[in-house]
Design a protein that fits this description.
53% of the residues lie in helices and 11% in strands. It has a seven-stranded mixed beta sheet, with helices on both faces. A two-stranded parallel ribbon has the order 6-11. The longest helix has 31 residues, at 305-335. It is α/β, with parallel strands linked by helices. Residues 438-507 have low confidence and may be disordered. It comes from Coprinopsis marcescibilis (Agaric fungus). Keywords: Glycoprotein, Glycosyltransferase, Membrane, Transferase, Transmembrane, Transmembrane helix. Residues 435-497 are annotated as: Disordered. This is Polysaccharide synthase Cps1p.
């Protein structure tokens, strides 16, 4: 090695340091992921899916794949599935729901397609303790819900995620789907590592994630979730999972990820070049969220320092990734100059061959967890290497286009600001109708089956986002078994507040 670098040894020192750092960092993550263990199932679970889980699925174009996904969700016996869509899709989705399970699947609508508004509408219509958000193509194993609920035995846990794998759209995976599968393999390792080291995670993926309803019913959360702006003027529609994860951190909740086969979901990816548009959207969301976490909110530094360091590392990752090609290009140029005139002593083909062998070996090593199960995908390793350099350039491009907040891969999703404004107008109209006595019957308390007509403020409480479901576990909280604040974080000091709210609901 010293012979190969003897001509320009000082130049290689910083690059050697970078390479040593990158692979030391990878070894640390590998060891941490190998020692990670999922939360086991409790003998006497506090939460039971048939009583405590509502699955919320925001969608605008669910097709036949929705039926397969819904059937897999129903195996876990959730209390209810809420499909939230735009009004023009009510008929087709209701027909699909009727085919699968009309008793447990309910279709609700919002005036305009907007994922955050759809999720918000689902939250307001939830009466269980746990909400699970799922993509309309996420296929669950039968044991996913019990393993997710096991994490909530810890009253500090506010959100739970899972590991993921790619399901092919056709009979065999395309190169695009394989690239997505490679990325998920690396992600599964990273989230297991960060969860094990300091309990944090950069993002609880929106493909499937569970949260305590009491957190999401908070009016402050609902307003912030549907009025999320980048630089104060670009309203965000995507990036909902990033917002939810940051909210957990900033409000004192812990998170956990169940990385195990029992909780590993299958999800489809774009089987064509549109996958690149997906990656671009995800990359912009990551830039926006990580910059906020690190430099604006800053809770991540004290709550999960390892995750914070990971975020900083990813900020500079495009630059370190491009160091290799830049160095190789420089050496090739030097190899064209005679050695007695300061040129490099190795021929250009030798430099390229050495670099290709090094890349192939190291990238194959990183992908071994995937290749162990699908060795036939080794032919796509060169495509993964090329994609890595494309991704580095694209990540820099994404940094300078963070003002672009469109979905990118779905038609029918309009301007987020217009959709939010329209939804707020409808809410104002409904409140005006309520004040004018347009409802012949007062709202029913779905928790206790009572109609409360004592005063208008109580009706407002029952129908507002803050009307948090209080079931047998909430009563247990009042008896001192465990305490969860209605503001959205575990706290011993909130006992009196929780008692007052419970009594108001009861009376």
């Amino acid at each position: 090695m010293l012979y190969l670098t003897s001509d320009d040894f000082p130049i290689f020192i910083p690059f050697g340091v970078i390479g040593f750092y990158r692979y030391l960092w990878y070894c640390i993550r590998l060891i941490a992921a190998a020692t990670y263990r999922p939360v086991p199932l409790p003998e006497n679970p506090t939460y039971i899916a048939s009583e405590d889980v509502t699955i919320i699925v925001p969608t605008i174009d669910a097709g036949e794949e929705f039926k397969e996904a819904a059937e897999s969700w129903l195996v876990g016996r959730p209390k209810e599935i809420l499909i939230i869509t735009e009004e023009k899709m009510l008929g087709p989705l209701q027909a699909l729901a009727n085919e699968v399970d009309p008793e447990r699947i309910r279709v609700l609508t919002v005036p305009f397609a907007n994922k955050r508004l759809q999720m918000s509408h689902g939250i307001k219509n939830t009466t269980t303790d746990i909400i699970v958000f799922a993509d309309d193509d996420a296929i669950w194993p039968p044991t996913l819900l019990p393993y997710v609920l096991a994490c909530f035995e810890d009253q500090q846990i506010g959100g739970v995620g899972t590991s993921q794998r790619v399901k092919s759209v056709g009979n065999r995976m395309t190169v695009w789907e394989t690239l997505a599968a490679f990325r998920l393999t690396i992600r599964n390792l990273e989230i297991a590592c960060s969860t094990h080291i300091d309990g944090g995670i950069p993002c609880l993926s929106g493909r499937t994630a569970a949260y305590r309803t009491v957190i999401l019913k908070d009016p402050e959360f609902l307003h912030g979730f549907t009025h999320d702006f980048w630089l104060g003027k670009y309203q965000l529609n995507s990036g909902d999972d990033k917002f939810l994860t940051r909210w957990m951190v900033s409000h004192g909740w812990s998170t956990y990820v169940q990385c195990c086969k029992e909780a590993e979901l299958l999800s489809t990816m774009k089987p064509n070049w549109r996958f690149l548009k997906q990656v671009l959207r995800w990359t912009r969301n990551t830039w926006r969220s990580d910059l906020r976490s690190l430099f604006k909110e800053r809770h991540i530094w004290t709550a999960h320092p390892f995750v914070a360091f990971t975020m900083v590392d990813k900020l500079f990752n495009p630059l370190t990734l491009l160091v290799g090609p830049i160095l190789v290009s420089y050496l090739i140029y030097k190899s064209t100059i005679p050695t007695d005139e300061g040129g490099y002593h190795l021929p250009w083909w030798n430099i390229i061959a050495s670099y290709v062998v090094w890349l192939s070996a190291t990238r194959t090593l990183k992908l071994m967890p995937h290749l162990w199960n699908r060795p036939q995908d080794i032919i796509y390793v060169p495509a993964f290497i090329a994609f890595g350099y494309y991704f580095a350039v694209m990540k820099i491009y994404a940094l300078f286009t963070l003002h672009e907040t469109g979905w990118g891969t779905r038609t029918g999703i309009g301007d987020a600001s217009a959709a939010t404004a329209a939804a707020e107008r409808l809410e104002d109209e409904k409140r005006a109708l309520n004040r004018n006595g347009a409802h012949l019957q007062p709202p029913t308390n779905r928790l206790y089956g009572q109609q409360n007509t004592s005063d208008s403020s109580m009706l407002e409480l029952q129908t507002s986002a803050s009307a948090t479901p209080l079931d047998r576990r909430s009563k247990d909280h009042l008896r001192g078994k465990s305490r969860v604040s209605v503001r959205g974080r575990p706290a011993e000091d909130d006992m009196d507040s929780l008692e007052m709210q419970f009594n108001r609901f009861k009376n």
